[in-house]
Amino acid sequence: MLDIDEMSLKEIHELLHKVGYGHLGCIHEGKPYVIPMYYYLEEEDIYLFTTVGMKTHDIDANPEICLQVEEINGPLHWRSIIVNGQASRLTEQPDIDRVMKLIKERNTTLSPAINRTWIDAEGRSEAIAIYRIHKSEISGRTTNGISSR
Q1: What is the pTM of this model?
Q2: Which one-letter DSSP state was computed for residue 56?
Q3: Where in the sequence is the domain holding 43, given as residue range(s)?
């Protein structure tokens, strides 16, 4: 039987800094909805960048979200993190500008959020949204392929 251990907060933050993408769970029309999503860290704050659409409608309607991040190096060697919390849309321009600078440093093309369906004739995105996750619970589990049996 494989041993699965709890990750320390330090290990969780190290993995969040390393990976940069995960799966975002939210509620769409009363049902769970999970999508792949890049996230961005500024110290310990987690930010989500997207274009206005179904995701933003769903998050604005019910800001309770779950972000799952994982690193898999085979069936016996993996780490997984769950971040539960509330997402709030940034509305103050200085905050938006500061976080956009962080996002563009890590993802100059802003893809996959910005794609040809969201670009106008002059190359500008039509509508973007940035959310900050206010963490209410964070946990992580890991295994290194060792069994205690």
Answers
A1: 0.83
A2: H
A3: 5-144
